[in-house]
């Protein structure tokens, strides 16, 4: 392109390029690129001029060439597909008439911060430094699938809205970010796709507003992040998908609000997560799906548990904060799949690891009661008898109370109606208390039951005392044995 074909604005940009100088067309701090369509020729630059500069622009010895423009209206399409650009590209506060294309390009640095774009096509782009789109506004699809970014990707305060698009509005599937994905305050309307992406640092989506009501707002299946995935204070309308994700640090949903009524709001099945934080947050609208997930730490406040959970085969090492079993058990009652024994065993193990045996017993008792509701009527009846009498063996003192009550009953009855001796003249003096103890305690003999034989209804009472004695005594011994073993 000949220099005399350039407009005055383009000449400024052309002259500044070889020296790496910035050209700023802005007229004030409140200059809004959204109104860039009305900017005149004094701040309009053709995309073909910028392309010519980047591919074969002038050089100056001793200077580092770079393209740095602010406040310009860029007309036409900036097409850098498959190009190798050795210079930083900084097009800040600019208004793009058409979506730039840098598919499979290799760039040193790309900065589109605070610019307004109708989209960006950057599939498989390689950026050796950072890609900045801080507070950028994109009214179309932002395509960065398969991108390779050596540094960080900055999207803080950015807006990506394409509600009528059939494809995800922010595509980062299979992308690789060498540092952080920094996007606090991100606003999207449509789906964010992170399937198969990897981030060597952390992902910050704090204060984000992600809206794709009724569909996936954040789809990050098999996503891998070495650090944290932060969604603190975020508002997400649509489901968050983390199936098979690998998060080395924490998944922080503190103060976050997730809404996908009637379906799963958070889908983290088969995910491996260092720490999952659900605290200081209202219950999500929709189910919490942690099936087959593996967590080192589950920080879950009872107030943040939604009305439905899916916890089948969930494993966790530590459960915090420490809460009484009565506050944790309602979560297991909200299991969509009904009775899931594994969930009770995990909660029991968590309490035992911190030495709270009382809470562990309560969980096991609740497990038996929950299991009872799945049995046929005769199984439910027998379970109710075990519950009332001995608390399924987890309340041995109740069994001791029943033993004392039966001892008092038997002693009173046999004191009023002593049984006849088996051999007159050879039987010891009758003692109703020790006779009843002989019937109730199967391992102790005071010589009374072998010397006397009740008849009629009192014989039935004796048989009942023998049977209940075996059951209750065994329960007491088992309870004491469990206590001694744990100590």
Could you characterize the architecture of this molecule?
With 487 residues, this protein is of the alpha/beta class. It has 2 domains: 370 residues, no CATH class; 98 residues. The chain has 9 helices and 38 strands. α7 packs across α8.
Task: Give me the count of strands.
Answer: 38
What profile does the largest beta sheet have? 20 strands, parallel
- The residue ranges in which pLDDT falls below 50 over 5 or more consecutive positions are 483-487
Structural class: alpha/beta
Q: Report the end-to-end length measured between terminal Cα atoms.
A: 87 Å
Compute the gyration radius: what is it? 37 Å
Number of structurally distinct domains = 2
Can you summarize this structure?
This protein has 487 residues and is α/β, with parallel strands linked by helices. It is 27% helix and 27% strand. The termini are far apart.
Give the SSE layout.
Elements: H1 8-16, E1 22-24, E2 44-46, H2 47-56, E3 67-70, E4 73-75, E5 84-85, E6 89-92, E7 95-96, E8 106-107, E9 110-111, E10 116-117, E11 120-121, E12 126-127, E13 131-132, E14 137-138, E15 142-143, E16 148-149, E17 153-154, E18 159-161, E19 170-171, E20 176-177, E21 181-182, E22 187-189, E23 192-193, E24 198-199, E25 203-204, E26 209-219, E27 224-225, E28 229-230, E29 235-241, E30 246-252, E31 257-267, E32 272-278, E33 285-289, E34 294-300, E35 309-310, E36 315-320, H3 325-333, H4 341-353, H5 357-372, H6 377-390, H7 396-416, E37 420-421, H8 432-440, E38 452-453, H9 457-486
Parallel strand pairs: 1-3, 2-4, 3-6, 4-7, 5-8, 6-9, 8-12, 9-13, 10-14, 11-15, 12-16, 13-17, 14-18, 15-19, 16-20, 17-21, 18-22, 19-23, 20-24, 21-25, 22-26, 23-26, 24-27, 25-28, 26-29, 27-30, 28-30, 29-31, 30-32, 31-33, 32-34, 33-35, 34-36
Antiparallel strand pairs: 37-38
């Amino acid at each position: 392109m000949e220099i005399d074909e350039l407009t005055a604005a383009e000449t400024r940009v052309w002259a500044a390029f070889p020296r790496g100088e910035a050209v700023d067309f802005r007229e004030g701090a409140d200059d809004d690129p959204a109104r860039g369509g009305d900017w005149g020729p004094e701040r309009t630059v053709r995309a073909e001029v910028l392309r010519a500069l980047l591919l074969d622009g002038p050089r100056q010895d001793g200077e580092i060439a770079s393209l740095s423009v602010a406040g310009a209206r860029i007309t036409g399409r900036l097409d850098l597909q498959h190009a190798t650009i050795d210079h930083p590209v900084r097009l800040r506060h600019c208004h793009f008439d058409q979506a730039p294309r840098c598919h499979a390009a290799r760039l040193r640095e790309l900065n589109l911060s605070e610019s307004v774009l109708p989209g960006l096509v950057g599939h498989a782009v390689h950026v050796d430094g950072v890609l900045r789109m801080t507070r950028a506004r994109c009214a179309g699809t932002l395509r960065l699938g398969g991108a390779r970014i050596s540094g960080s990707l900055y999207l803080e305060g950015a807006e990506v809205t394409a509600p009528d698009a059939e494809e995800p509005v922010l595509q980062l599937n299979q992308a690789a970010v060498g540092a952080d994905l920094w996007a606090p305050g991100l606003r999207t309307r449509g789906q964010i796709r992170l399937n198969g992406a990897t981030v060597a640092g952390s992902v910050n989506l704090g204060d984000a507003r992600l809206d794709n009501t009724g569909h996936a707002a954040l789809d990050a299946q098999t996503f891998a992040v070495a650090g944290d995935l932060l969604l603190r204070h975020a508002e997400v309308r649509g489901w968050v998908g983390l199936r098979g994700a690998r998060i080395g640090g924490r998944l922080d949903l503190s103060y976050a609000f997730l809404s996908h009524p009637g379906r799963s709001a958070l889908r983290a099945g088969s995910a491996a997560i260092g720490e999952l934080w659900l605290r200081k947050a209202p219950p999500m609208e929709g189910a919490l799906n942690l099936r087959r997930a593996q967590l080192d730490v589950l920080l879950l406040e009872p107030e943040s548990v939604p009305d439905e959970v899916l916890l089948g085969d969930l494993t966790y090492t530590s459960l915090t904060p420490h809460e009484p079993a009565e506050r944790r058990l309602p979560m297991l009652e909200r299991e969509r799949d009904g009775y899931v024994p594994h969930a009770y065993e995990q909660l029991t193990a968590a309490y035992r690891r911190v030495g709270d045996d009382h809470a562990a017993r309560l969980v096991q008792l609740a497990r038996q009661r929950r299991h009872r509701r799945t049995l046929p009527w005769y199984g439910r009846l027998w379970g109710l008898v075990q519950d009332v009498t001995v608390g399924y063996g987890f309340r041995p003192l109740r069994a001791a109370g029943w033993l004392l009550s039966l001892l008092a009953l038997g002693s009173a009855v046999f004191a009023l109606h002593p049984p006849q001796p088996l051999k007159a003249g050879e039987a010891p003096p009758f003692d109703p208390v020790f006779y009843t103890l002989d019937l109730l305690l199967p391992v102790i003999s005071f010589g009374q039951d072998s010397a006397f034989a009740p008849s009629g209804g009192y014989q039935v009472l004796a048989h009942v005392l023998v049977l209940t004695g075996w059951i209750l005594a065994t329960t007491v011994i088992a309870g004491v044995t469990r206590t001694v073993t744990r100590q």
